[in-house]
Write a structure and sequence with these properties.
The protein has one domain. Helix content is 79%, strand content 0%. The chain contains five helices and no strands. The longest helix has 35 residues. It is elongated and about 70 Å long.
Length: 110
């Protein structure tokens, strides 16, 4: 299990991201939540956990409950990874299409 210090650092990061998006501090018991954040660090590491938190706030329109993050961070990571793969795939398809259009224009004299 991750030490308490990184878990509290991740909680601080969550609070800052929440404040940045919603303009208020979230109400939570840090000592109770430290174990959930420590588990997230154990599962994915500190930097990846921060990325998951940032992605979490891009998926929310209204102020979310912290439980939505803490009980679903595995699903959020899968969604984020799938979105990254999709963006890369679309970029490749756009590049292929661009090359095909250039070839067509060269062969048809436009």
């Amino acid at each position: 299990m991750a030490a308490a210090k990184p878990a509290f650092g991740l909680i601080d990061f969550y609070v800052k991201e929440y404040e940045k998006k919603y303009g208020v501090r979230p109400a939570m018991n840090r000592f109770k939540r430290q174990w959930h954040f420590a588990a997230m660090i154990d599962d994915y590491g500190f930097e990846e956990a921060k990325n998951i938190i940032q992605y979490f706030f891009t998926t929310c329109r209204r102020a979310p409950k912290i439980e939505d993050l803490l009980y679903n961070y595995e699903d959020l990571k899968e969604m984020r990874d799938a979105e990254i793969l999709d963006i890369e795939h679309r970029k490749k398809v756009r590049e292929q299409t661009r090359r095909m259009v250039e070839e067509w224009e060269q062969t048809h004299g436009e």
